[in-house]
Amino acid sequence: CVKDSLSRLFACCGSVQSVDICEKPGSGEKKEKLTSKFFNCKTVTGFQVAYVVFRKPAGVQAAKALSREGPLLISTESHPVKTGISKWINSYAASVVDREELKAEVDTYMQEYDKKIAEEEAKAAKEEGVPDEEGWVKVTRKGRKPGLPRTEAANLQVLEKEKQKRARKELLNFYAWQHRETKREHIAQLRKKFEEDKQRIALMRAQRKFRPY
């Protein structure tokens, strides 16, 4: 039961201006119409509510009298409604995304987004430093040095981290070399002292005299 089916069903009552299908009854205010065919498309299951708007008030009165004339058929020989396997096959075929159409929609969206950002930046640059009616001056983040793009800022951050990592590694290597040199000097001093002690002991033994009394 889609908009076309309902519009055709109630056409016998009068000219149909529009048909809106909602998940549940509401205030009747129209929601923002989705412009995307591929994004923000929510599939609604179960019962729904339809608002049929006629071009003339007489269509409403004729629609109220339909219940006395018997049931209305949505699926007819001239306009059959697909159900079962045929409906599933049709739904699957409709779910296959056309790459070219998707690319065109994404490109259009990005162009509009870039245009909007450019307009906002131009407006901010025009209003920068200009006081308002109460004398307040709006301060923006954009100063003499404009901010770098995200990609460039990310690259600089990665380079800075690599630089710090390399400096830390060089410092650790220096400490390791200094520790080895200190240890080597300490061993050399121990050996020198050991040789001096050996010579001193040998000299003391040579000078020792036998003194029984």
TrEMBL record:
Keywords: Coiled coil. Gene3D superfamilies: 6.10.250.1770. It holds the Pfam family RRP7. Residues 95-213 form the Ribosomal RNA-processing protein 7 C-terminal domain. Residues 99-130, 180-207 form a coiled coil. It comes from the Eukaryota. GO terms for biological process: ribosomal small subunit assembly; rRNA processing. GO terms for cellular component: CURI complex; UTP-C complex. Belongs to the RRP7 family. This is Ribosomal RNA-processing protein 7 A. It comes from Tauraco erythrolophus (Red-crested turaco).
